[in-house]
Write a structure and sequence with these properties.
- This protein has a nine-stranded mixed β-sheet. It has a two-stranded antiparallel ribbon with strand order 7-8.
- Helix content is about 35%, strand content about 20%.
- The chain has a single domain (about 5-295), classed as Ribonucleoside hydrolase-like (Inosine-uridine Nucleoside N-ribohydrolase, Chain A, Alpha-Beta Complex).
- The protein is an alpha/beta fold.
- Helix 1 (about 15-25) packs parallel to helix 10 and helix 8 (about 190-195) packs antiparallel against helix 9.
- Bound molecules: alpha-D-ribofuranose (RIB) and calcium ion.
């Protein structure tokens, strides 16, 4: 019995790999993709999502172009990580389809898990519309240090107001943050295992080659955290990531800490437990799942 999912994303190298992991995994059924401005502008993230589906031979999956800016702040993109196109590195096929004019709210039937892997602008708008969302598994946030500021992770930082709405909505949410994604580095050796395994394998290897440049330069990592793929992997196999049910607040009015996910890991505030937060991951099993599944794609 596969779980239907909708991915709300800002491709983005790791978003692209997350989409491919979903397409390669029978445990999930990708119903549709909504794009958001984040890593790049929404016209670029939309085009990138269409290209990734074209690569996988799944242009049948609808892509809806979502928010082109955060709810109340100017857009902040990440060309320093993902390049000007948002998917710099590999050559990808031109899309054969246009974005869909569907309303993603209609995709969110009972049983569907929403997997946002970018800023939460679209998700906040769904909450404000009163759309019933059964469950969210979000790549974003951090218990510890941020990656776009010392205090904030990028997806939360781009649209803190949206994150505050979503975390205050009462929708069951799992937060796959930097604390776990940085524990599972996809190395050149991992990439080399995929380089000759079909077009998708080649593209994932080349995406990771590009993604690695930032992580080597910034952190000295021998590999890259494929952040967004871990959110999809958590739906595929919930035993990979260990979570703690606790309160998460979002900072929206601080000179230094805007976008910080304030995680009450040890339940000291008595605040409502509104999120399941990733605190550990079986990194070898996650990485093997990722490689094995991508290798099955054409
Ligand atoms: O901080 C990492 C997150 O921000 C990932 O989702 C990456 O794609 C960017 O959106
Ligand atoms: Ca992303």
């Amino acid at each position: 019995m596969s779980t239907p999912i909708v991915i709300d994303c800002d491709p983005g190298h790791d978003d692209a790999i997350a989409i491919l992991l979903a397409l390669a995994s029978p445990e999930v059924e990708l119903r549709g993709i909504v794009t958001v401005a984040g890593n790049q502008t929404v016209d670029k993230t939309t085009r990138n999502a269409l290209k990734v589906l074209e690569l996988a031979g799944r242009a049948d999956i609808p892509v809806v172009s979502g928010a082109d800016a955060p709810l109340r702040r100017p857009l902040r993109t990440a060309p320093h990580v993902h390049g000007e196109s948002g998917l710099d590195g590999p050559d990808l096929p031109e899309p054969s389809t246009e974005p869909s004019r569907d309303d993603p709210a209609e995709w969110l039937e009972p049983g569907v898990v929403l997997v946002p892997t970018g800023p939460l602008t679209n998700v906040a708008r769904l909450v404000e519309r009163g759309v019933a969302i059964e469950r969210i598994v979000w790549m974003g946030g951090a218990i510890g240090e941020g990656n776009i500021t010392p205090a904030a992770e990028f997806n939360a930082f781009v649209d803190p107001e949206a994150a505050a709405i979503v975390f205050g909505s009462g929708v069951p949410i799992t937060m796959i943050g930097l604390d776990v994604t940085h524990k599972a580095l996809f190395t050149r050796e991992h990439a080399d295992r995929l380089r000759g395994r079909g077009s998708a394998g080649r593209v994932v290897a080349e995406l990771s080659d590009f993604f690695q440049v930032f992580h080597e330069r910034r952190y000295g990592f021998d590999g890259s955290p494929i952040h967004d793929a871990m959110a999809v992997a958590h739906v595929i196999d919930p035993t990979l990531v260990t979570t703690v049910h606790c309160n998460v607040g979002i900072e929206t009015s601080s000179r230094l800490c805007d976008g910080r996910t304030v995680v009450d890991r040890w339940l000291v505030t008595g605040g409502p437990r509104n999120a399941h937060v990733g605190v550990d991951v079986d990194a070898p099993r996650f990485l093997e799942l990722l490689i094995e599944r991508i290798a099955t794609l054409p």
